[in-house]
């Protein structure tokens, strides 16, 4: 026979080990299996447990404070037919609420090969979801530990789940849950125990909608929907569940790549959930990846979910010392600083990872002056949202990554300042300082009609080097003039003006503990103005040039008219007259002014010393002659390299004065040239050759 305990209002609430009831009134209920005592649980008032059915005998202990006056037990006993299991606990809900329940003997092990059932009575207009808070499984020799659900309307009753499976949710109406033990291993039995929660709440509009997230074409992407971190409250809070295929529900769900997933939500406030996703883009063969471009965009399937996206991270992996990365945004980016904070609904967080340290480059949002970011090694880019309005601003996202040839600096920023506002820039790892022996550069472009002003936030960096030197280089890309500053010893430069593109390079030493290197600077643009003397000189020069051109045109026109006024020359042939002009015989038949015999481009040695260069066969051995070839390499596309030691001075100024002694002088690097003869050395005498040889006339003899 079975016994049934019926509890009048208020019903009971089960508590766990170490917990106590607020009023101090508890009911401890236990039973027997043969001679072994089995504890069903300890209960307080004001709960959902209305009945407990036991097989064979039952023991109920009522504990009261000494000052509590009570003349009734609070329950009644009735006979019942055999329940064919250890016990049945009935939990009745009249409205929204939750109940936490535990297996027999909790937290110790559930009796071997026993069956325990919970019956839940839920109003038809509400929905129930089950979640396991904690559980352990034992070592089974026979059978299998499991939980079984009897769900009204299901065609597969009972539905069987393992304890580690996601449990059912969004269930309408009454249902049963049963825990089945197994035959345990005698040598190492282990323990079976379970603590779970049932949450009953009103159905939400989203519970009837199904969302599809297609990850079938992805290989390295995962997506997690989970609750936001919130402070716990003692008041009843309806749960937020994500349901797969509308039945298996959980407070957090992870979707893996290679499959298509159907989701629905059972939640009164979807702002309590958020989405975090991650994708890996890696390059194994650098020959295949070189110059390849990949978009970094949130898929549309994620954007259509009714849950806000929190983070979407891309892990970018490159072959070591083979390739680097470049990030190019669809819209220029602004670096987030205290002086100019980002006010958009999302930002990109850029981090580079190295074996010894992680380098946080900063947070960047659309609407700035940064055109691209080059990263030396493996990096991660995280799109983080700050407001639900990201759904409307999602079109502004757009970032591409490309694999480029390897470079040695930690990062290079390409910046084109805005003419209407300051551009604030700061070194990576702002809070912790630039890592030791690392170098970062900024390539700053200056429009042709603007002048850039470079200003530093403070006078000194405060860095103290344990080894090495920390320095900064400011280099004009056009003139190659550069200034080198010691960041440990010198005062940072005063605001400087630049009319052309320039580099700012900051290199760190190995700093002493607590003295880190961090720099904040900004760039502003102003319209370029021309000095009054320059304008006057230009006007006068232009007027003089115009007058000269007019005079030249008038002269040429007059000269042409004079030629046209002269009659044409007429020649008459007379065959009886000797046309040979008497004169002095001359050495050359053609005048020097009519030929180029006096101009030598190159004197070929083989023409002068040819008889000395003949080999045994009579052919000439032509010597190899070096020729000057102009430099054709790139100019102005790479950051300045640290100067040689011999050229570093404690203080350098932006000047184009005489180069240091370790740099070749202009005369030493001059190519070979040929000098043309001076005009004064060229004889103007006539060297024409006469048409006929003539002799002076001989006087006749008398």
From TrEMBL:
Q: What is this protein called?
A: CUB domain-containing protein 1 isoform X2
Gene this chain is encoded by: Cdcp1
């Amino acid at each position: 026979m079975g016994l049934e305990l019926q509890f009048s209002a208020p019903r009971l609430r089960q508590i766990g080990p170490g917990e106590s009831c607020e009023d101090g009134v508890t009911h401890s209920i236990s039973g027997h299996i043969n001679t072994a005592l089995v504890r069903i649980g300890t209960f307080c008032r004001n709960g959902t447990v209305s009945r407990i059915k036991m097989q064979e005998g039952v023991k109920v202990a009522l504990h009261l404070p000494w000052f509590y006056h009570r003349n009734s037990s609070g329950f009644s006993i009735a006979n019942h037919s055999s329940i064919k299991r250890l016990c049945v606990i009935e939990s009745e809900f009249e409205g929204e609420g939750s109940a936490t329940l535990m297996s027999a003997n909790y937290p110790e092990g559930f009796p071997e090969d026993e069956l325990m059932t919970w019956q839940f009575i839920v109003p038809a207009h509400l929905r129930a979801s089950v979640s396991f808070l904690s559980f352990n499984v034992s070592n089974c020799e026979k059978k299998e530990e499991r939980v079984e659900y009897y769900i009204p309307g299901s065609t597969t009753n009972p539905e069987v789940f393992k304890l580690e499976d996601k449990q059912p949710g969004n269930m309408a109406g009454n249902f049963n849950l049963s825990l089945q033990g197994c035959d345990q291993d005698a040598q190492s039995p282990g323990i079976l125990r379970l603590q779970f929660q049932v949450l009953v709440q009103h159905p939400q509009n989203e519970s009837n909608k199904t969302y599809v997230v297609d990850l079938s074409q992805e290989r390295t992407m995962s997506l997690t929907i989970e609750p936001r971190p919130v402070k716990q409250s003692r008041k009843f809070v309806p749960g937020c569940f994500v349901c797969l295929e509308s039945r298996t529900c959980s407070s957090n769900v992870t979707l893996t790549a290679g499959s298509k997933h159907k989701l629905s939500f059972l939640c009164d406030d979807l702002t309590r959930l958020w989405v975090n996703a991650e994708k890996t883009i890696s390059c194994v063969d650098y020959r295949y990846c070189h110059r390849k471009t990949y978009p970094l965009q949130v898929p549309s399937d994620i954007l259509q979910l009714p849950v806000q996206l929190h983070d979407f991270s891309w892990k970018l992996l490159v072959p070591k010392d083979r390739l680097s990365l470049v990030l190019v945004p669809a819209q220029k980016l602004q670096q987030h600083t205290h002086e100019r904070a980002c006010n958009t609904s999302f930002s990109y967080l850029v981090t580079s990872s190295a074996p010894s340290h992680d380098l946080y480059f900063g947070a960047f949002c659309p609407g700035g002056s940064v055109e691209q970011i080059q990263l030396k090694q493996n990096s991660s880019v995280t799109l983080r949202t700050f407001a639900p309005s990201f759904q409307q601003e999602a079109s502004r996202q757009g970032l591409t990554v490309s694999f480029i040839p390897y470079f040695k600096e930690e990062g290079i920023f390409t910046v084109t300042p805005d003419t209407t506002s300051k551009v604030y820039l700061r070194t990576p790892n702002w809070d912790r300082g630039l890592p030791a022996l690392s170098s970062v550069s900024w390539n700053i472009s200056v429009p042709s009609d603007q002048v850039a002003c470079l200003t530093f936030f403070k006078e000194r960096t405060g860095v103290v080097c344990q080894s090495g030197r920390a320095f900064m280089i400011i280099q004009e890309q056009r003139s190659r003039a550069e200034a080198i500053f010691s960041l440990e010893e010198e005062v940072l430069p005063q605001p400087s003006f630049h009319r052309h593109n320039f580099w700012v390079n900051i290199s760190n030493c190995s700093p002493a503990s607590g003295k880190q290197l961090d720099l904040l600077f900004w760039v502003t643009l102003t319209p370029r103005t021309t000095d009054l003397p320059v304008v006057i000189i230009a006007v006068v020069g232009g007027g003089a040039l115009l007058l000269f051109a007019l005079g030249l045109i008038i002269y040429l026109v007059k000269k042409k008219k004079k030629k046209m006024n002269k009659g044409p020359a007429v020649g008459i042939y007379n065959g009886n007259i000797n046309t040979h002009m008497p004169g002095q015989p001359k050495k050359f038949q053609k005048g020097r002014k009519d030929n180029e015999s006096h101009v030598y481009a190159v004197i070929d040695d083989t023409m002068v010393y040819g008889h000395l260069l003949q080999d045994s066969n009579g052919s000439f051995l032509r010597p190899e002659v070096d020729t000057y070839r102009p430099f054709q390499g790139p100019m102005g596309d790479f950051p300045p390299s640290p100067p040689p030691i011999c050229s570093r001075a404690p203080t350098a100024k932006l000047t184009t004065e005489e180069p240091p002694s370790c740099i070749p002088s202009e005369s030493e690097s001059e190519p070979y040239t040929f000098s043309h003869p001076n005009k004064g050395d060229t004889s103007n005498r006539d060297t024409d050759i006469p048409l006929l040889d003539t002799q002076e006339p001989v006087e006749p003899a008398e």
